[in-house]
Amino acid sequence: MSDHHNSSASQETEPRKDVSDDHLPGERRSGELAVLDDPFADPGLPPHEHRRQDIDERAAKRSERTVALLFTVSMLATIGFIVAYLAIPIDEIVYIFPIGHISALNFALGTTLGVALFCIGAGAIHWARTLMSDEERVEERHAVAATPEVKSHVLAEFRKGAEESQIGRRKLVRNTMIGALALVPLSGLVLLRDLGPMPGDKLRKTAWREGSLIVNENTGQPLRPEDITVGSLTQAMPSDLDHHDEDFHAQIAKAAVMLVRLEPEDIKDPRSAAWGHEGILCFSKICTHVGCPATLYEQQTHHALCPCHQSTFDLSDGARVLFGPAGHPLPQLKITVNDEGFLTALGDFEEPPGPSFWERG
């Protein structure tokens, strides 16, 4: 029994010998590791199959006419876009099933522009799939810096590609494509009209006129000098503006002002003092950075702060900029008192109020 077990143990612990030195095809020995020579062989490209258009000129002509038709439809759609933009009233509403009631102008513009762009894309795709060369080639990667030989090869390939695209031979396709690509940008050019007329001098003029009463922006009541106390800030506007006017918001955005009263000896700028009345100064409250109301007033320092980007203006020194991104002082309005004792303007601002713009000096 003991000998039998010893014999079995010796058989199990003895290193197993290979029955044969044969191994898998394409496998080589490297110590204890077997490695496949080429586990992912390149299968190569399948044989090239010619399209019908390659062997039948009549089929090629039909494809050429199809591409030309798509480009022609694109041109007609672009012309339709321009006609619709000029002819359809902006407030006309139509019923389109199943969308419902929509703007006739928006529907016409969207439809015609969509057709114009789609036909250019569809024409280019059909051209590439049926008339241009579809033979596949394999090119090895090369260094980024091209050699003269490579450059000449690229130029030769470019010329060959141009020849294979048949752009010179298929004049109908070429001419209609050029027409479609030349016309479709007109859609964007026409839309520039919606940017409105040029502002002219509108940015430089506000609702302030000589003799305009200065009224409290909240109550609409005319202001007297005694209504403005030292250390206070009052927001005001010209009496010519009416909250019910259609362009009220456009006008108040330029004409809104703030009144502060300082002790005459605290006013550092003589010109600013001369434009005021008994220490009452009137400045545009529209920040010269991006147009926020700069009406956070600190009476001890006479500083006005814009809460949007912290531009700070010294109202005792002509509202010059002390801090922040604003590029110009707040424009000051010349004021006086009329015969009835109300504060009035002596004219408009001498420089445009609000943010800087391209024509501002």
Automatic annotation (TrEMBL):
Family matches, as InterPro entries: QcrA_N, Rieske_2Fe-2S, Rieske_2Fe-2S_sf, Rieske_Fe-S_prot
What segments bear the compositional bias annotation Basic and acidic residues? 13-31
The record's subcellular locations are: Cell membrane
- Membrane topology of this protein: Multi-pass membrane protein
Q: Give the Rieske domain ranges.
A: 254-344
- Position of the signal peptide: none
| Annotated stretches, region: Disordered | 1-52
Mind listing the UniProt keywords for this protein, alphabetically?
Answer: 2Fe-2S, Cell membrane, Disulfide bond, Electron transport, Iron, Iron-sulfur, Membrane, Metal-binding, Oxidoreductase, Respiratory chain, Transmembrane, Transmembrane helix, Transport
Which cellular components does GO assign to this protein?
plasma membrane
Q: Where are the transmembrane segments?
A: 67-88, 108-128, 172-192
What is a single molecular function from GO for this protein? oxidoreductase activity, acting on paired donors, with incorporation or reduction of molecular oxygen
Which family is this sequence assigned to? Belongs to the Rieske iron-sulfur protein family.
Q: Per its database record, what is this protein's job?
A: Iron-sulfur subunit of the cytochrome bc1 complex, an essential component of the respiratory electron transport chain required for ATP synthesis. The bc1 complex catalyzes the oxidation of menaquinol and the reduction of cytochrome c in the respiratory chain. The bc1 complex operates through a Q-cycle mechanism that couples electron transfer to generation of the proton gradient that drives ATP synthesis.
Q: How does it assemble?
A: The cytochrome bc1 complex is composed of a cytochrome b (QcrB), the Rieske iron-sulfur protein (QcrA) and a diheme cytochrome c (QcrC) subunit.
Q: What is this protein called?
A: Cytochrome bc1 complex Rieske iron-sulfur subunit
Q: Could you tell me which species this protein originates from?
A: Streptomyces mimosae
Taxonomic lineage: Bacteria, Bacillati, Actinomycetota, Actinomycetes, Kitasatosporales
